[in-house]
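Minimal example, chain plus magnesium ion.
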Amino acid sequence: MKAVIFDLDGVICFTDKYHYQAWKALADRLGIYFDEQINNRLRGVSRMASLDIVLERAQQSYTQEEKDAFAAEKNATYVELLQQMSPADLSDEVKETLDTLREGGYRLAIGSSSRNTKLILSRLGLSDYFDAISDGTNITRSKPDPEVFLMAAEMLSLPPEECLVVEDAKAGIEAAHAGGFRSAGVGEASEHPDCTYPIAHFSDLKTILL
Ligand code: BG6
Ligand code: MG
């Protein structure tokens, strides 16, 4: 393998709590039940597909225009919360592992559904770190579709067989498998039958790759 394509949220950093707070604020305003379990289902899922999951509990249906406004409202809250992030939110384990893989000759890329990828990378001090960034702004189909990873591989000019995908979401493991990539899964992703390398810690990537 020549490159590693990392999912962002839940792999490089932990934005779950901010997504939760932002969706919860919207759901509360609309009088819709929302909890951490529902939030877990939003992992790896695009913003609009996440909204559809949040609205499953709604007592009424909404027009596309209203849904667009809800998604924008949630994102404004989320972006505000992201201002709390700083390079201190990048763990020593993640930074040390990334640096070691890079020294080992691997090219490193991001493959994330988030349209806020570049903002989050800048909050973490990683704006110029990766060799390629494929994110929610350059895809039309969200995970479990492999598009975001295929685009990352294309940006690196490498075939999927030469790239390892690192994921925390089951939808991400499915996307990797569908695109012909091997995958390393942390958390719930490690339990997916299509996960090539279930790992307990991010630093275990060094054992797989070096
Ligand atoms: C993924 C997250 O990385 O990005 C999802 O796991 C999120 O929870 C998705 O819905 C889209 O994020 P954004 O930042 O474009 O709203
Ligand atoms: Mg993720």
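The domain at 16-82 is CATH 1.10.150.240 (DNA polymerase; domain 1). Residues 19 and 78 are 6 Å apart (CA to CA).
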